[in-house]
Specification:
This protein has 14 helices and 6 strands. It is an alpha/beta fold. The protein folds into 2 domains: about 230 residues, no CATH class; about 120 residues, abc type-2 transporter like fold. α2 runs antiparallel to α7.
Length: about 375
């Protein structure tokens, strides 16, 4: 992978040269190469399986439209979509039983709000008794249809509520959002926490690190080069994972910001593990780190408030929980205001890990 450094200051030429060397090293290492392709392979498997599981489903949707919106007619044009209009908002929930998959109450002035860029909220009720494949298919179709309306801000802020006929509301499950969140978190963890500690120890063993320290490159230059290399590879894999798992639906700018902040945090954590751990400890430490940081994605399909207090406390102490919360907001088209607190906490964790890294580096150095 060529990185042009012709017109850059000498220091940045040196940093990008280190980054290019590290990218080549990673791509030539079978272990790291397999790690890069695991999220892509899993995404491709589900991309093939999901249409096969839901290809025969007919999606019956109940709609009460207060203001003659065009959205019901747009949905009716989709393959396997059956739209049934009802007379009242109450009738939507009353009739959301049997083979009905979803119910929508469209407020008056909905189309006007969308065209004026006001991003109105829209609650969609899902029948918890319907087939999960039908629900997943409807969610995919609906998100894609509303995504086509954006220009470029979120056209609609979606609230999904699972309705249990005769009972209480439940939190809906979306396999595609769950898969994207899990794959994004797994990618950032594997490419950074697993790769960076190994790079540092390999270079200590083969003398490359000593040679770099004897060059005009500073310790900060070397670590920045390694950070840039893993950041670049992570973003490339995340891009492909996003294309395969609908990562660009909703507020994609929030999604990108959350993933970039998380990747930067993971880079700092990976470098810190490489500096703190001995070679025989690195593999175990990296594995534990990846396991812990991916834990919040296991609960991404449910509301954290519905979990036990101890589970909520544990998740709140894991920085990547705030990436999961930001992605849940962004994939449903929520605004920056809704995601702001999660992104701010994630930024705080990121700054904190680099402050610890700088402090440790000043005390002990790279060797």
């Amino acid at each position: 992978m060529e990185i042009s450094t012709t017109h850059l200051p000498a220091r940045w030429q040196l940093i990008l040269s280190i980054a290019r060397k590290d990218i080549i090293t990673i791509l030539n290492h079978p272990y790291h190469l397999i790690s890069l392709f695991v999220p892509l392979f899993v995404s491709l498997v589900f991309l093939v399986l999901m249409p096969a599981l839901s290809s025969s489903d007919t999606i019956r949707v109940l709609i009460y439209d207060k203001g003659s919106s065009k959205l019901p007619d747009q949905l009716a044009l989709l393959e396997d979509m059956e739209i049934e209009r009802v007379g009242t908002a109450t009738a939507v929930l009353e009739q959301l039983t049997g083979d009905a998959v979803a119910g929508i109450v469209l407020p008056s002035g909905f189309d006007t709000a969308v065209s004026n860029g006001r991003s109105p909220e829209l609650t969609i009720y899902l029948n918890s008794e319907a087939r999960s494949s039908s629900i997943a298919k409807f969610q995919r179709f609906f998100v894609e249809e509303t995504a086509a309306l954006r220009d470029p801000a979120p056209a609609v802020q979606l609230n999904w509520e699972a309705h249990q006929p005769g009972g209480n509301e439940m939190v809906p499950f979306s396999i595609e959002k769950f898969l994207f969140t899990t794959m994004a978190l797994l990618t950032t963890g594997v490419v950074t926490c697993s790769t960076l500690p190994h790079l540092l120890h390999e270079e200590k063993e083969n003398g490359t690190l000593h040679a770099l320290l004897s060059s005009p490159a500073t310790q900060a230059d070397i670590l920045m080069g390694k950070g840039i290399s893993t950041f670049t590879l992570t973003m490339i894999v995340i891009l492909v994972v996003s294309l395969l798992n609908q990562g660009f639906v909703g507020s994609w700018s929030i999604t990108l910001t959350a993933i970039m902040l998380t990747t930067l945090f993971m880079i700092g954590l990976g470098l810190l593990l490489g500096l703190l751990m001995h070679k025989n400890q690195v593999k175990a430490a990296a594995s534990i780190a990846v396991l812990v940081i991916t834990m919040p994605s296991w609960f991404s399909a449910t509301s954290i408030e519905s979990l036990a207090p101890v589970t909520r406390l544990i998740l709140r102490l894991i920085p990547t929980q705030y990436m999961v919360e930001a992605l849940n907001h962004s994939l449903n088209g929520r605004s920056w205001a809704a995601s702001g607190s999660s992104l701010l906490i994630l930024l705080t964790w990121t700054v904190g890990i680099y402050l610890v890294l700088v402090w440790h580096l000043r005390r002990t150095g790279l060797q």
